[in-house]
Design goal:
With 254 residues, this protein is mainly α. It is 59% helix and 0% strand. 20% of the residues are buried.
Length: 254
């Protein structure tokens, strides 16, 4: 067993993790509500990414809308467009969904299709590079080296200065996996992961953990159990469990 022989210690650790998880979830909920109250035009996680990581493209599209748009100049149209393209990059076969989004936006605002196609291409390329899964990085070594040498771009660099949600703990990696799994989830069929598809199995006895250069991390090392085991079980519970019978928040231990 990966756990200690002291079951009381294991239970205490589990309870501590539960408390921390609940506090983190509540903090995110409060922050989300405050953000929406003060900035109602920011309506999704992908809008936040668009604002933080694509301000030059947003500004350029806004300028283009003012100059060329034949309809009403919606001040949030550029944000919705960039956010949509960013979101597509998190989905399975997202590249196939982008042309339709671009054509719809161009037709609605009367902006040149070629211009928006070029903007969408840059957004998708940057987002896809940033959110590569560990298994994808192993397949795209040459491409990644090219981008790093020419554009100083590298995977998982957006949150590089964030100790707890960047780097080997990158929250975008987690979101990417969740989005892709949810894209293939079905209400009536439980997902069954193909062993090794998302990466190597997570082993507490792996000899690699004894070497500093291969320390266990969430991104990459934990992709396989998260995508192939944890998420399918959570989705199955959400589809089948009688949530109406769950206790109220005030009745819960943590």
């Amino acid at each position: 067993s990966p756990f200690s022989e002291d079951k009381n210690s294991d239970l205490q650790l589990l309870m501590e993790c539960t408390v921390v998880s609940n506090m983190a979830t509540e903090s995110v909920r409060v922050a989300e509500n405050d953000l929406y109250a003060n900035h109602p035009h920011i309506q999704s996680f992908y809008h936040v990414l668009a604002l933080v990581f694509f301000p030059p493209i947003l500004a350029d599209i806004k300028k283009k809308i003012v100059e060329e748009s034949k309809g009403d100049c919606d001040p949030n149209a550029a944000l919705r467009f960039v956010g949509d393209i960013v979101e597509c990059s998190f989905h399975n076969r997202g590249n196939d969904k982008i042309p339709g989004r671009v054509k719809k936006f161009a037709k609605k605002l009367g902006i040149k299709l070629s211009y928006l196609e070029e903007q969408a291409k840059m957004i998708h390329m940057a987002t896809s590079l940033e959110t590569q899964l560990a298994m994808e990085e192993a397949l795209n070594v040459t491409q990644n080296q090219f981008f790093e040498s020419h554009g100083q771009l590298s995977a998982h660099s957006w949150l590089g200065n964030s100790q707890y949600i960047g780097g080997d703990r990158c929250i975008l990696n987690t979101q990417n996996i969740v989005q892709k799994i949810m894209g293939i989830a079905q209400n009536t069929t439980k997902l069954v992961g193909r062993p090794g598809f998302w990466g190597p199995p997570f082993s507490f006895d792996d000899e690699r953990k004894t070497t500093p250069s291969s320390t266990k991390c969430i991104r990459g090392d934990f992709d396989e159990p998260f995508a192939a085991n944890i998420l399918p079980e959570l989705i199955a519970i959400c589809n089948q469990a009688p949530f109406h019978a769950l206790p109220e928040k005030s009745q819960l231990l943590t």
